[in-house]
Model the fold of this input.
Amino acid sequence: MRALLVIAMVVVGSSTGSAQRPTRSEVIAAMQTAAEFYRGEVSSHGGYVYHYSVDLNERWGEGEATKDQIWVQPPGTPTVGMAYLKAYKATGDPYFLDAATEAANALVYGQLKSGGWTNSVDFNPRSKHVAEYRNGQGRGKNNSSLDDGQTQSALQFLIHVDQALGFRDVAIHEAAITGLDALLSAQYPNGGFPQVWTGPVKPQPILRASYPDVDWRTEGRVKNYWDMYTLNDNVTGYVAGVLIDAARVYEDDRYLDSLRRLGDFLILAQMPDPQPGWAQQYSYEMKPIWARKFEPPAVSGDETQEVIDTLMLISRSLDDPKFLQPIPRAVAWLKQSLLADGQLARYYELRSNRPLYMSRRGDKYELTYDDSNLPDHYGWKTPNRLAEIDRQYAIVRARKPLTESVDNDSLTSQAKSILAELDDQGRWIDRYDGNRLVGQAKFKPGQEYISSQTFSENLMRLAEYVASDQP
Done:
């Protein structure tokens, strides 16, 4: 009740145009109220999915979820858990650490025998969605996945919880180390990673990227593309973040060695002229290949920007300018490949560099250069981030520290807005605006729902405000 009274006071202040900053105690009270609702009413088995109906009777991850399912893929359980952990670090309140530990234990339950995670965990042993969990409680598939940050987000969260608990929780520590060992065993000799693994990978030759020497439209399709080198959806960026955190927390040089080999792979994977960017998926011969039926061999605007970010991260972390060498050519290619509206195509046809799309009729896809009728389930275009990339590159190349200044006025304004939007039950309610959401929640325009991403972002932003207001 005390926290709710504080929230009401803040809301009244903001609605009357008061410029007064929320006090640290007011913001902490609001954080506690929101966390108590999300942990006490929304969580299941300690974990979370993406979206919930306001009455909490319906849940969605990648499709509709049961009460026994939690989601690993962001913005699921690791995302919410990291928000709790950030709140704990800002406030020192053990309630937030307990909530984070509860989420970590849910992930420990769902760790696969192969050491990683798939996109979800099912606590119902009779469900058709269970997998072969390391704890012996499941059955079925044993596919540890790096797609969309699944294993990476779980590992990164467990590493930070392990550290926050002083490495004293045996189950969490063991799960983190087991997962990291499995990740290292999934790295190929050239430094690349597959999208999915079930055990240690088989060595392959170390080659440079090249263009296919067959008609890629009709030949060379590989059913098990997920076993091969993957960049799709920022796989390598997420992996780099895990390796950097593991090296810092556990002080083990194996993780920096792996990071260096990952950077070496990205150098090898840069396509030759006339398209010195990166593809989504490569064969063992280091040629772009098909993935899903709407993901053709091509050079990708989105993945190229992500790889540039990753190379800068690796260069900065290892203090090695070698990993910056591919960037100028890639940036020049991106700039000459901009679409008329300033965006980048997801796919550029091999060699010709024409923007490449897909049309869809039923379950069948056809390649096209026409972007007037694109399927809406996929991101065929992506915003260009070239101005920010240029800025970051200049800083990293000059070996200057990356300092992020805190805009106190902006942070205060955001904190006041977040507090004002928190209702009397401790909920942040979203309203569906018709844009594509992560997952497959079936909302109607204007429908209200509860979002794990909104909860996590708001809690972390309030934690930043509290941390900036330290005496």
